[in-house]
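in:
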């Protein structure tokens, strides 16, 4: 048995006998760290493997396994519980990430206040002092009896306090500030984050503690730290929104106990984050009247229909290559729709700078918004407004055809509830039962041409 030094990539565990700036396997820079390993003789290795095999677990028949009964703790914040799938699961680990200043600490303090009446909560802070947390709690009106504050960054001391207090829920803000003495690298490094988070998750799984880990984001907007951290936790939540905009959105990137399609909508005000129970009304508030380049669309975020406003602006370009900008809409999707409108309708967008925006900071990820985007672009180019009572739903193909979209019943019901009485939908989605009467006009269309030609032309 002898010692050997190798360099191990903290991202993909690639090993090399010498240091290199770039990992040959994953292509990441500055991820190789020096580690000492013990090399055993082949005989000892074979003996150890033989001994371990004697205690291997036995396979079981699937039909004989028992279904788990997950016990959830309501956070008291309905929008967050919706994203989590009904609340925090006992023994689960949740990773919450978002840009600095977006409101993560505010949300965590509000969660603590809601959970404390029925649970014992330990709030571990490695970034703020106790007085800072006290000031935030006072501003938010949080003063529970079962909320413990621990200002500590050493993982061993934190786990020791957890044994003494025996909390039901632990919040760690943030995992980048926690360090393990047994790891030589500094706090916040990939190795430290991986090791400390693994110990937190092991503790949560073995003792039934629900744990919320807060993580930073890197310059690319991705969750900082090793990718294995996202694989190890049960749910990954991303807190997004513009800092200058009052609306915030929580989105689940991963969820072992619920859907990843749900979102939670909040509004930031002086007293903290307030739930937005009706995001459609909030997103349509302040919509201009009689202005070209605006069209409404109904999107599905999980089981919730949300009506958003698509805005487009086309202005004459003074450059050889016109500028293209999109906010909230996939950049490549915008280029595809512009190409379809130029080829199939003969509209000259190539001579204009084009700007697309989704009001309220919402990100449009489903193709059902194609028809609304196209109408907003055409409206801006022709300088003719889309009527305020019109809402458009449908996916546009490369031939200009309008393709069917799912959940059309829910989309139409939400549009009617918000006061829209002219609803453009794909013809393949149309059935007689969709006709609501009471002045509601359903316009089934086969292509983008149908919206521009009589008798369905909305620009007449």
């Amino acid at each position: 048995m002898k010692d050997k030094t190798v360099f191990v990539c903290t991202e993909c565990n690639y090993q090399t006998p010498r240091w290199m700036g770039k990992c040959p396997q994953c292509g990441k820079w500055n991820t190789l760290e020096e580690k000492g390993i013990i090399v055993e003789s082949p005989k000892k290795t074979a003996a150890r493997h033989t001994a371990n095999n004697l205690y291997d677990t036995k396979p079981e028949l699937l039909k004989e396994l028992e279904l788990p009964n997950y016990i959830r703790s309501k956070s008291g914040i309905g929008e967050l519980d919706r994203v989590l799938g009904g609340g925090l699961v006992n023994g689960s680990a949740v990773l919450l990430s978002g840009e600095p200043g977006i409101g993560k600490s505010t949300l965590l303090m509000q969660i603590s206040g809601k959970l404390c009446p029925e649970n014992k909560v330990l709030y571990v802070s490695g970034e703020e002092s106790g007085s800072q947390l006290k000031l935030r709690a006072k501003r938010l009106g949080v003063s529970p009896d079962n909320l413990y504050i621990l200002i500590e960054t050493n993982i061993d001391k934190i786990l020791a306090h957890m044994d003494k207090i025996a909390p039901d829920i632990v919040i760690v803000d943030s995992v980048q500030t926690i360090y393990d003495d047994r790891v030589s690298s500094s706090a916040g490094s990939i190795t430290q984050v991986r090791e400390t988070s693994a110990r937190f998750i092991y503790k949560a799984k073995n003792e039934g503690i629900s744990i919320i880990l807060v993580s930073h984001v890197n310059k690319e907007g991705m969750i900082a730290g090793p990718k294995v951290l996202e694989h190890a936790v049960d749910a990954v939540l991303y807190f997004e929104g513009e800092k200058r905009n009052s609306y915030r959105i929580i989105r689940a990137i991963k969820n072992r106990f619920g859907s990843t399609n749900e979102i939670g909508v909040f509004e930031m005000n002086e007293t903290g984050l307030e739930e937005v129970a009706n995001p459609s009304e909030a997103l349509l508030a302040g919509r201009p009247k009689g202005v070209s380049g605006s069209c409404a669309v109904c999107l599905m975020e999980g089981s919730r229909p949300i009506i958003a406003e698509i805005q487009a602006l086309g202005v004459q370009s003074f450059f050889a290559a016109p500028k293209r900008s999109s906010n909230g809409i996939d950049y490549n999707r915008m280029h595809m729709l512009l190409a379809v409108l130029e080829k199939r309708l003969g509209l000259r967008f190539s001579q204009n700078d084009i700007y697309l925006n989704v009001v309220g900071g919402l990100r449009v990820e489903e193709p059902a918004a194609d028809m609304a985007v196209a109408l907003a672009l055409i409206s801006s180019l022709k300088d003719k407004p889309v009527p305020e009572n019109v809402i458009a739903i449908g996916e546009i193909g490369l031939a200009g055809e309008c393709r069917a979209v799912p959940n059309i019943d829910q989309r139409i019901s939400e549009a009617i509830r918000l006061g829209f009485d002219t609803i453009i939908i794909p013809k393949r989605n149309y059935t007689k039962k969709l006709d609501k009467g009471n002045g509601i006009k359903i316009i089934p269309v086969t292509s983008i041409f149908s919206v521009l030609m009589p008798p369905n032309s909305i620009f007449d």
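note: Confidence is low (pLDDT under 50) at residues 43-52.
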